[in-house]
Every structure is written in structure tokens, then in C-alpha cells.
Amino acid sequence: SIFEQSDEINLKFVLLGDSAVGKTSFLYRLTEDRFFESHVSSIGVDYKTLHFNVNEKKVHVQLWDTAGQDRYRSIAMSYIRGADAAILMYDITRASTFQELSQKWMVDLKNINDNTVIGILGNKTDLEATRMISTQNGKLLSDQEGAVKFTEISAKNSAKEDLLLIFQEIVEFVLK
Ligand code: GDP
């Protein structure tokens, strides 16, 4: 294809998970290195493009941020189709967001596209005092679901560079 000839690769990733787990905050940290304590819940879908160099190829990743509310779920579903990877996020301080990850988001994802590379992120590690989901349980879920990457992050406190490294690992899995 044209893209291979020019050593450029375009990928599409989707960010999934319940409302307020921190999807938009993660996207802001990755792109603008900013954090907002309060955020107006994103309506519909927005995306940012991230750029990586992998094996001397330029890789452009469109990362789609889908709103988690049920009324926007059908929108999110349409973005899963054709996604090269899905990053599923839960909030370590809210058990319901962890349960929904396997009972809702993973089910939808596998129904639509069973080949999608999956990464799982537990967000809000800065709120350790109110943690509800252990790291070990996150790992167990990740193994169960065949995720290529699991880690815990804080969109509030993690360094942008560290989040980009996690992201780059998932990109490398997609290109394998
Ligand atoms: P989204 O609905 O999944 O996109 O979630 P948002 O990014 O809008 O975040 C929801 C709320 O959680 C906002 O008030 C954020 O400021 C807050 N938030 C997001 N990430 C973190 C984090 O890592 N730590 C803390 N303490 N709050 C966070």
C-alpha cells in the first residue's frame, strides 16, 4: 500500500470504559501533559493523534475517546469496528467500573471485533487510600481476557513519558 511505501503506518485505537474512569484525562496527559480536577463529561467521541517511531517507521495512532454513558454506547460501538487496539480503563477506587469492564466493555468488544489487541489500565493510583481493586485482581482479569498489557496509572500524577511508553508497547504488539 501507499503507507508501506512511504514508511508510514496509520493505526486506530479506541479508549473504552465507564464514565469518569479518566479516559479524557489520560488523553490530555498523553497529548498536552495537563490535568483537570473537574472535567465536563465528553459528549460523543473525540480523538487525538499520537506519533511514534517504531523500526524506523513513522506510526500515527488515532486514539478515540468514547464517552462511557449508556446513551453514547452505540456511538462507542461503531468506533470499535476496525480498531487495531482497544485500551480498556477502570477506576481502581470504584469496583463497579472494574466489573463493567469484563461484563460490558469486553463483551461488546469481542462481539464486534475478536482480533483487537487489548490493553487494560487501572487508573487513579494517587487515590491509594480509597482503592477497591487490588493490582493482583487487575492482573488476573488481564490474563483472563488475553490483554497484551496491564498496568496501573494515574492520569493525575503519572509522567507523560511513562504513559507514552505504555502506549508504545501496545503499538509494538499491534505491529508484530
Ligand atoms: P472519562 O469520563 O472517563 O473521560 O473521565 P474524565 O477524564 O472526565 O475524569 C473523570 C473525573 O476523574 C475528573 O474529575 C478527573 O479530574 C478525575 N480523574 C481522572 N483521572 C484521575 C486520576 O488519575 N486521579 C484522580 N485523583 N482523579 C482523576
From TrEMBL:
Keywords: GTP-binding, Nucleotide-binding. Transmembrane segments: none annotated. The chain holds residues 34 to 209 of 212 of the full protein. This is Ras-related protein Rab. Coiled coil: none annotated. It comes from the Eukaryota. GO terms for molecular function: GTP binding; GTPase activity. The keyword Zinc-finger does not apply.
